[in-house]
C-alpha cells in the first residue's frame, strides 16, 4: 500500500495535483524521551550539508535541514516540504515553487524564497568546492556562476517573498529528486557568515531537530525544534552514537542503552527467526544492487552467452541464505523491488546449470574457461560471496580466480577498466531513470564497459519525459534490455535491517538508505528513563 501511495504521489506532483500538507502531517504518537541510535557509518566529519555527500553525515543533517521538497520515507517519491506546492510549465523547463509562510530557521527567523537563492548559490559557489553542486545541474546560468563569469544563477528568480522560480536548460524528469537531500536544504546567511567554517560544527537549519553538541568520534546530540512547520517532533531529543563494533552495538541494545541500530548479516542471521525479536526488526530492499560486473569488451564476457551462463549457473537464493544469513532480496533485474517503477512481472534468470553449460558450449567454452575476479573482504559483497559461488560456477565450467584488494583500490580499478570481472555494490539513486542511467554509454566507467546505442536513446528519452506513467513503461523496457544483455550477474538488492526496541514506533522501511530515517514522527512508549 505504501508503494502504491508513493507512485500516486509522484504522478500527482508531476501532473500538478497536490496533496495538502495537512493530509501528509496526520499522525498519532506519544511525546517525550530522547532516542539513542547508532551513527551507522561512523563519525559524520562535518554537519554543513554542502560539505559531505556521505550517509554518515546525511543521516544526521536530514533531521537538521529542510528543502523545497522531501522524499517520502518509504517510497522515496518526491513530496512537499517548505514548498507546499509547485507547478511545471508545459515544456518542462520552468518550475514555480509556492513556499509556506510558516517555516522558520532554528534562530527564529521566517524563511523566504530569498533564502533559497542564497543557499543554492552557496552550494554552487566554487569557493565552497562542494562535491554536491551537481544537484543544480541543468539550471540556466549554473555553469556561468560556477565558473565565475556571472554574479548570480540566471535561472533562479524570486517572484514574490514566498514564490521561487527555477528555469532549466532542458527537460529533466528527475530534477526534483536531489532537491530533497540535505545539501539542497535552506540555510540562514546570517549564521553562515557569523560562524564561517565553524558552521559545519555548529549547524543552524530549519528541520524538526536543532543542534546541541558534537563530540567527535563519540556522539551528536540534537533537541526538538518546537516551532517546526509540520508540528514539533514527538521526541524531545535525538542522539547519534558512534559505535564502531557490531558486537558492541548488539550488547548495548540488549542492555537497553541503545534504542535502534543498523544490523549487519552476522547479527541478522542469529535473530531473524527468534520470536523475541519479531517486533524489533524492520527491513527493506535498499536502492543498492549487489552484483558481479563483467568487462563486456574483454574475453570471455564480450559474448552475451557467457554472461547469461554465469547468471544461470548460480543458485542465488541458496547463497543469500547460506552466506548472508538471509539478508538479501534476490535480484530480478537491476532496479530494486522497492522502487515505485519496479516491474513485478519481470522474471530473472533462475538457477539452471544445464542451460549455463549449453550457453558456454555455444560460445566456444565447452571445455571451460578461467576468469579472474577482483574482490574485497566485505562479508556481504566480497570474498565470502565469491568463495560461495565458486563451486556453482566450477560445476558448469567457469573457474574463478579471486584477487583480493582494498575497496578503494577495487573502485579505482573499476573506474579505470582494469579488470575482467569484479564484485561490488552500487546504487543510491531514488529516481528509477537515474538508477538505470549507469548503463548509458557515457557512464561506462561506473559499473562496466557495456554500450548499447538503442539503450542510450531510450534512457535519454526517459530522462526528458515528464509523464511519469510513460517513464515507468520505459523503465520496464530498459530494465528488461539490461537483464537480457546481462552485463552483470544479478545478485541481490541489499536487505537493510534496523533493530529497534519494541517501545520504539515509527521506524520506516527507508529504501534510499535504512540509516536515513525521518525521525520527525518516531516516538517511544514508554520513553525510557536513563
User: Structural class, judged by helices and strands?
Assistant: alpha+beta
CATH architecture tag of the largest domain: Roll
Overall body shape: globular
Helix content: 25-40%
> How far from one another are the termini?
37 Å
Count the beta strands: 19
| Number of distinct helices | 17
* Average pLDDT: 93
CATH hierarchy, class of the largest domain: Alpha Beta
General description of the model:
- The chain has 17 helices and 19 strands.
- With 530 residues, the protein is α+β, with helices and mostly antiparallel strands.
- It folds into 2 domains: 2-28 and 45-207, Dipeptide-binding Protein, domain 1 (Alpha-Beta Complex), CATH 3.90.76; 284-495, Dipeptide-binding Protein, domain 3.
- The chain is globular.
- The relative contact order is 0.15.
- Residues 1-25 have low confidence and may be disordered.
List keywords for this structure.
530 residues; alpha+beta; Dipeptide-binding Protein, domain 1; Dipeptide-binding Protein, domain 3; 20% strand; globular
SSE layout and pairings?
Elements: H1 2-15, H2 21-24, E1 34-38, H3 55-61, E2 69-71, E3 78-80, E4 83-88, E5 94-99, H4 113-124, H5 142-147, E6 156-160, E7 163-167, H6 189-195, E8 209-215, E9 219-224, E10 237-241, H7 246-254, E11 260-262, H8 265-271, E12 281-294, H9 304-313, H10 316-323, E13 329-330, H11 353-362, E14 369-375, H12 383-396, E15 398-404, H13 407-416, E16 421-427, H14 432-436, H15 444-447, H16 453-464, H17 468-485, E17 488-500, E18 504-505, E19 523-524
Parallel strand pairs: 1-10, 14-15
Antiparallel strand pairs: 2-3, 4-5, 5-7, 6-7, 8-9, 9-10, 11-17, 12-16, 12-17, 13-17, 18-19
Helix pairs in contact: 9-11, 16-17
